[in-house]
Write a structure and sequence with these properties.
- By secondary structure, the protein is of the alpha+beta class.
- It has one domain.
- It contains 2 helices and 5 strands, in the order αβββαββ.
- A 5-stranded antiparallel beta sheet has the order 1-4-5-2-3.
- A hairpin with a 3-residue loop joins strand 4 and strand 5.
- It is elongated.
- It starts with a helix and ends with a strand.
Length: 107
């Protein structure tokens, strides 16, 4: 009888733990309710930027995360071969949805 109660408590605790995941995203600043921050990531000595490429990754509830937010993917999306600078943007809504986006500027 006692073991059945313990088993139920452990199962319930596991379910609560599993569903308490949060979607988080790298950001220079963060907030509990809503985050939408754009910031510089890196820069090079190239002086002209005529093209902009983007790449992003998203997360839902911290349980599923997909996407390719690499600098390489963003550069390829716009045919950039010489990178001038890279910016990043982080969005998070209540820890339920998160998006990380890279902007690559170059030629």
């Amino acid at each position: 009888m006692f073991m059945k109660k313990i088993k139920k408590i452990l199962i319930l605790g596991g379910i609560v733990f599993f569903f308490s995941s949060c979607a988080i995203v790298k950001s220079p600043l963060g907030a509990v309710l809503y985050t939408d921050v754009k910031a510089p990531l890196t820069a090079t000595s190239n002086s002209s930027s005529t093209k902009v490429g983007t790449a992003e990754a998203t997360s839902i509830l911290g349980l599923v995360a997909t996407g390719d937010a690499s600098i390489e993917a963003a550069a390829k999306s716009a045919g950039i071969t010489k990178i001038h600078h890279v910016d990043e943007q982080s969005t998070n809504i209540l820890g339920l949805f998160a998006k990380y986006k890279i902007y690559v500027f170059g030629e």
